[in-house]
Prior knowledge:
Layout: H1 7-10, H2 12-27, H3 32-46, H4 49-61, H5 66-70, H6 83-96, H7 105-115, H8 117-139, H9 146-151, H10 154-157
Helix pairs in contact: 2-8, 3-4, 3-6, 3-8, 6-7, 6-8, 7-8
Amino acid sequence: MSHRKPTSELTPRAFTAVRELEKYVASTGLDKVHYKLIKIRASQINGCGFCLDMHARAAREMGVSEQRIYMLSAWREADIYSEEEKAILALTEQVTLISQGGVSDAVYNRAVELLGEEYTKAVVMGVVAISAWNRIMITDQVVATAVAATAVGVNALENYV
């Protein structure tokens, strides 16, 4: 891997803008466990090792079981997620993979039915936020190491990413 200057150093205002999006999502009332599930699943799909490592660790610290973290990529075959969580994960996948047919009416309407329209929009914005972080970290070639965490200020980032 080449050494690339971090986005946080080269374009701090852009980095701050993504942090502001995170602050907005936090203000919506989106459940913290739901948001961690969103962050982990989107990071799996996007292939962002740094974010996946960070959010899996944080989820464990929040009390999310190892099984619920490990099974996220196969959530359809697991009976350990609520119907609301399944709707969130289905929506997360379709928003993350938006170029593969968009977000279907069935997935969107199921989310609205179970979560309400406002909460559903909070889920969408949460997916947008983590997808932005995934793209920044992947482009910057940030890997899941203690050195990388220090380089991007992971302690400060954890509140936002």
